[in-house]
Amino acid sequence: MINRIYLAGGCFWGVEGYFKRIEGVVDTECGYANGNTKNPSYEDVCRKNTGHAEAVRIDFDDNIISLEDLLIYYFRIIDPISVNKQGNDVGTQYRTGIYYTDEGQLPIINDALKREQEKYIDKIEVEVLEIENFYDAEEYHQNYLDKNPNGYCHINLEWANEPIVRSENYKKENDESLKNRLTDLQYDVTMNAATEAPFRNEYWDSFERGIYVDITSGEPLFFSTDKFESGCGWPSFSKPIQKDLVKYKEDLSLGRRRIEVRSNSADAHLGHVFNDGPAELGGLRYCINSAALKFIPLEKMEEEGYGYLIKYLP
Fold it and tell me: Would you state the pLDDT for residue 120?
């Protein structure tokens, strides 16, 4: 069944370009939502305080993608605590907003907001209202990034290609269970932020195809195809499978500043991230302890419950 939602997330050029890349989105239209005047022009919206938000009408096939998943993609590209500003764009027309077409969508939207709020101390400022009016933007705004591949965009469009991993499905065991299941080194690394020896660990020189998961919870973390030889003696990755599968913490131990990497759901210590990775891979090096990881080879992914990620493994 084809459903409809209107999303505002800053400049609509990038928002439309992003959602067009997502499987299950069947049609999009840039326009001006929930304002005070009829048939506004772009100039009106920018300069005459019409109250409209730059928004994108999104028609999606809910047999392919649910509204819940669509909103996960949405929250990847916005700063939800920013008011009237996204990227370099400032003004009420650049506010964030979710505009629903029927009240049956509201519980799904509220659940998504609740999950997102848990990631922030400050209050989320995403406007949630029923769509009251929507006026198509001028033709030159439609499919702007298709017409202008190097045009302005405040969004990383590649985030549309990242899979959705539900962290809530991967739970950390209690401490006693972890002590019984893990080796002393695995426990010490993940729970006490210890560091294993370089070049004498399980995965530093392994490049078999598959995924690496958090050994404490099973949460997917890294694709093998994002692993590279760095010469440091520990497994090195250019990026996580999904950007919010890991979290970061300042580490001032050893007399220097480093950025610690921890798993999202289990809060297990994984390693550190450095900015000395290959430029062609994005410039980052996630230096991860083998003892914090479990490798799932490609041929075992379906059996182990990770089959949904196979299509994303290059």
Answer: 86
Strands (E), 155-284: 210-214, 220-223, 227-228, 236-237, 246-251, 258-263, 269-274
What is the pLDDT at residue 221?
A: 98
Rounded to whole angstroms, what are the CA distances from 201 to 76, 88, 233, 257, 273?
34, 44, 8, 25, 18
Residue 36 burial (CB count, 10 A) = 12
CA distance 89 to 181: 50
Question: Could you tell me the strand order of the sheet in which 210-214 lies?
Answer: 220-223, 210-214, 293-297
pLDDT value for 119: 80
**What stretches of the chain show up as alpha helix (H) in DSSP?**
12-19, 42-47, 67-76, 106-117, 144-147, 175-181, 184-192
DSSP assignment letter at 123: P
**Rounded to whole angstroms, how far apart are CA atoms 168 and 218?**
11
Q: Which residues are catalytic?
A: 11, 287
Smallest Cα–Cα separation from 69: which of 3, 9, 156? 3
Can you list the domains of the chain with their CATH numbers? 2-161 (3.30.1060.10), 167-312 (2.170.150.20)
Angle at which helix 67-76 crosses helix 12-19, to 10 degrees, equals: 130
Residue 280: its pLDDT value, please?
95
129 φ, ψ (degrees, to nearest 5): -145, 160
**Rounded to two decimals, what is the model's pTM?**
0.80
pLDDT at position 56: 98
130-150: string of b/e by CB count within 10 Å (b at 16+)? ebebbbebeeebbbbbeeeee
Spatial distance between the Cα atoms of 23 and 73, rounded to a whole number of angstroms: 11
* Residue ranges in the chain whose pLDDT is less than 70: none
Q: What is the pLDDT of residue 291?
A: 99
pLDDT at 126: 98
User: Six-digit token pair at 292?
Assistant: 């914090």
